[in-house]
Amino acid sequence: MKKKHKELANRFSQMATDYDDKQHNDEYNACASLVIDHADPRPDDVVLDLGTGTGLIALALAENAEHVVGRDISEGMLEKARAKADDGSIDNVEFGDGEFRDPQYDGEVDIVVSNFAMHHLPDEEKREAIEVIASLSPRRFVLGDAMFFGSPNPEEPLFGHGVDATTVGMLVDELTDAGFVVTAVERVHDQVGVLVAERLEIPQK
Ligand SMILES: C[S@@+](CC[C@H](N)C(=O)[O-])C[C@H]1O[C@@H](n2cnc3c(N)ncnc32)[C@H](O)[C@@H]1O
C-alpha cells in the first residue's frame, strides 16, 4: 500500500471504534440517505461499496440486494463493519481490503456505490477510479461526496483537512467520458451532492 494510503488508513483505523457514535453533520446524513435511495438494488443484484468504512451504506443495502461487497483501505473500519454484520446476523455482505483504483474484486457487479470517500483522492486519481468503476460494467454508479456546485466561499469551508473535493462539472465530465449517462444530480449543499450515473446499454436481467 502506498505511504499516503497507509497513513490515511491508520488514521481511520484509530477512529473506527467511535466512528459511528461521532456526530456527523446533516449534509453527511442526507447524502447517505440519498445514496441508499438511489442505489435501489433489486433482489438479484450484487452491490460494491467503495470506501465502505464501517459499512453504513453496505449494511443498509444488504436487506434488498443478493450480495454486497464492501471495500476499504482501513482494516480498523473493516473490522467494525464485520462486527456490525455479525451483530445484525447479516450474512450476505463481505468486507475486505480494496482501493478505489484496485477494488480487489473480480466478480459480477450490478451497482457500485460510494459515500463520502472519493474526496480522499486527488483529481487525477478520481478520474482513474471512475475508469476502473466503469470497467466493472455496473448498470449504475451512485456517488455521494463533497463536490462543489458553485465557487465555495473560502471563509466558510464545510470540510477541513483531508477533503479534496472537485466540481460537479468535472465529475459529470469524467463519468460521461467513462461511458456513463448522468441521470440524476442531487444538491444537498453547495459543497455536497449525489450523482447517479447509469450504463443504459447494459442488458436488463
Ligand atoms: C468518511 S469515511 C466514509 C465511510 C462510509 N462510506 C460512510 O458513508 O460512512 C471514508 C472512508 O474511505 C476510506 N478510504 C479513503 N481512501 C480510500 C481509498 N483510496 N480507497 C478505498 N477506501 C478509501 C477510508 O478508510 C474511510 O473508511
Automatic annotation (TrEMBL):
Lineage summary: Archaea, Methanobacteriati, Methanobacteriota, Stenosarchaea group, Halobacteria
Name by which UniProt lists this protein: Class I SAM-dependent methyltransferase
Enzyme class label: transferase
Organism listed in the record: Halohasta litorea
Domain Methyltransferase intervals: 47-135
SUPFAM superfamilies, alphabetized: S-adenosyl-L-methionine-dependent methyltransferases (SSF53335)
Gene Ontology process terms (BP): methylation
Cleavable signal peptide: none
UniProt keyword list: Methyltransferase, Transferase
The keyword Methyltransferase appears for this protein: yes
